Amino acid sequence: MSKTISIVEDIMSANDQLAAQNRAQLDAHGVFGLNIMASPGAGKTSTILRTIEAITPALRVGVVEGDTAAVTIDADKVSAAGCPAVQINTGGSCHLDAVMLAKALPQMPLDELDLLIVENVGNLICPGAFHLGTHANVVIASVPEGDDKPYKYPNIYRNIDALVLNKVDLRPYIDFDQEYFERGIRLLNPNAAIFPISCKTGEGIEAWADWLRAKVK
Amino acid sequence: MSKTISIVEDIMSANDQLAAQNRAQLDAHGVFGLNIMASPGAGKTSTILRTIEAITPALRVGVVEGDTAAVTIDADKVSAAGCPAVQINTGGSCHLDAVMLAKALPQMPLDELDLLIVENVGNLICPGAFHLGTHANVVIASVPEGDDKPYKYPNIYRNIDALVLNKVDLRPYIDFDQEYFERGIRLLNPNAAIFPISCKTGEGIEAWADWLRAKVK
């Protein structure tokens, strides 16, 4: 048992060392790194596309897409929006780690970017345990997932800088107690900024984009 | 690298051995085991509650609830529905395995059950890799997650016996191409039964319950 623990510690330490190197590389190029985590289907790519629409060309954006399979659906959408995109295929693994991001960074034109968005694998558990070297962590939740998710999947919310609540356009059709949801977030993380948005209608995107612009500059 | 692979193989082999023991224990008591997997918020617990409503008291149901945290929200709902429920708190781990189920089985009144439903941790990736010893695997998808999920998270769909598509009541408000979704499932798994349902309205529950009754008997 103690051997298992020491192996886990070694892995995390190696990951953290590589995360620090990723951070240094981003800093050397003046690039702000944003790690986006969410459950499958919360709207990570839709939010990234709305964000690109709001902040480019004033800010120059690149995207690293983490996927468990070889499909390039998301990377293709980002490329079509005019931003450089690289896909990391984790080969079935359930999260990105600093090693994977370190391999992707040389493929991005860092000198020509202000913001690098990393779309993590769709998973509310594992991605929260691995530093990538990015400067901020964001979780995208969505109304149809239900208001109890902060209570059921607490770890992912503890170290985030902002929480985006997507699909608020569906509130008329779903029982979702926003006060209960936000109380759950606040219990875990009193300082996270919370942004209700709808990628379908555009509601709330500007407030989220303002927060991000202030972080990047 | 070869050493890493051999360790992974040993773990899976140990898990499979325990899964076979779980299966033998269920068989000895005449209990059918059903492993339910899904993304967070797809409606696993809601579907279980609708299923209990449809098939009890003709069939006697017990539920094992897998959670990553110590909250008993789901187990409490199942208990309130009149069925024995046990919670497995994985302590942050992203899936159930056969060891965890082996510890839960002695806490269930197996002699008094026809069906044991195991609600796996909300995750579309990791649970698919661990046999539990149950007799059938089901994935619950939901309309708001999007029609591209079989293409993005293929592994979880490969070995399932049925696919439940929940929240079809939201179709008028969401772009969801059901033909594209079902084609993705069929590519991975031509034999899985597909059941569109709404836990909110009750639509489709009876067809799903019929399938399950035929399996259990």
What is this structure's SSE topology?
Two copies of one chain form a homodimer.
Chain A: H1 2-28, E1 32-38, H2 44-55, E2 61-67, H3 73-80, E3 85-89, H4 98-104, E4 115-119, E5 136-142, H5 149-152, H6 155-158, E6 162-166, H7 178-188, E7 193-196, H8 205-216
Parallel strand pairs in A: 1-4, 1-5, 2-3, 2-4, 5-6, 6-7
Number of domains of chain A: 1
- What kind of sheet is the major sheet of chain A? 7 strands, parallel
Total beta-strand segments of chain A? 7
Low-confidence runs of at least 5 consecutive residues of chain A: none
**Can you identify the CATH superfamily of chain A?**
P-loop containing nucleotide triphosphate hydrolases
Oligomeric state of shown chains: homodimer
CATH classification class of chain A: Alpha Beta
Mean pLDDT figure of chain A:
94
Helix content of chain A: 25-40%
Strand content of chain A: 15-25%
Overall geometry of chain A: globular
Interface with most residues: A-B, 35 and 35 residues
Biggest sheet: strand arrangement of chain A: 3-2-4-1-5-6-7
Class inferred from helices and paired strands of chain A: alpha/beta
Instruction: State the order of secondary-structure elements of chain A, H for helix, E for strand.
Output: HEHEHEHEEHHEHEH
